[in-house]
Amino acid sequence: MVRRLLAKSSRSRQTSFGIGTESGKLSGSVPFFARSNPTRLLASLNQPFHSHQQFAIRVCRIGTTCEMKPRELPDVDSETPLSEIKIPDPRPELSPEDVSRRRKIAIRKRIKGYGTLLAILYVGIWYQPYEFDIIPRKLPNPNPRIDPDSKTLFSKGTKILIVTAHPDDSEFFIGGLLPQLKKSGAEMHQVICTDGDKGYYWIFTNADENRRVRREEATNAAAASNIQPPILLGYPDRFLHVKSDVIAGVTREIESFRPDYILAFDGDYPPRASHQDHRRSGDVAKIAAERTHIAKWLMLFSTNAPNYFVDISNNWEDQKKLLAIHKSQFYGKKLEGVENMVGYNAEKDGERGGFDMGEGFRCIKLR
Ligand SMILES: [Zn+2]
């Protein structure tokens, strides 16, 4: 009696079989498609065959098992061509109602599955903070170099307002310029639009603790660059929008500080993939700067269309120290990764500006 048939699927989509029988062991190799069709399976084995045998066929693929229950084979002799042997389907006959019911259940299950998958995808995309321009934005052409009165920029007492989205943005994006401005004796204020409640966007974090820690780190980092303690407008991280109250918040700071320069993200020509809060804070700063007409220059960083480059080749060590102040964000391997990323960007901008390391800005003269 044939006791069992074991099959192993190979990567070449051939299935190898071994059949234990009373008279010995049969083995062979059949195409993958034959694995679940007993008639084709037996025919493919091309072996002498005894009737009245009970078969238990077990076909195994890597990681799956498909079992066919033992059944009586038709009464045939060994001369009958194997291809003509019809083995009855082991599955019970289903009524048309049952077939239709099963089909409906299967469809419902599939809809539920795809629906859940889509919902997870939607929430994931909605929650993640990055924006990606599928079609690259057209860059200004021509985009001539501009000197934003750099002598004034690096003069003692020049008033500079930095508008960012998150507590660590200044050190990340203009951390090479800050030591230079500190050295030249600029008077610097900083507005941070969000409250830093999310850190790395992990859902289960303590928002209050994040706010406290990140405010403290931003204050320490500001102090290291001789910037006044930052003003946090307190909007939730990831959900910054160009709204009248945000614009009013930035406008208020511009009117009270009356800066000569406003430094902010470039919302018009951002990197193709960038944080949506960065873009929005840049839009807000630009609107407030144009409305107030107080600052002479708007210098937009994290831009794809720079027209002015600052040589920061000698400030790299200082920038690394500034980055390390944000311990909750950048530490260990993460800090190393961030340093590599910032360094890489500085080298790229440096190449465009003709320095070893640089920071690119899109400068707009406001008045
Ligand atoms: Zn940021």
Care to describe what's here?
The protein starts with a strand and ends with a strand. Helix 7 crosses helix 8 (276-292). The protein has helices spanning 38-45, 96-127, 150-153, 169-173, 177-184, 207-224, 244-257, 276-292, 316-325, 332-353; strands at residues 4-9, 14-21, 24-31, 54-61, 64-72, 130-132, 159-164, 187-194, 231-235, 261-265, 273-275, 297-301, 308-311, 358-365. The protein has 2 domains: 4-84, no CATH class; 150-365, Rossmann fold, CATH 3.40.50. The chain has 367 residues and is an alpha/beta fold. It is elongated, with a radius of gyration of 35 Å. It is built from 10 helices and 14 strands. The strands form 4 sheets. It has a 7-stranded mixed β-sheet, sandwiched between helices. Strands 1-2-3 form a 3-stranded antiparallel β-sheet. A two-stranded antiparallel sheet has the order 4-5. Helix content is 38%, strand content 23%.
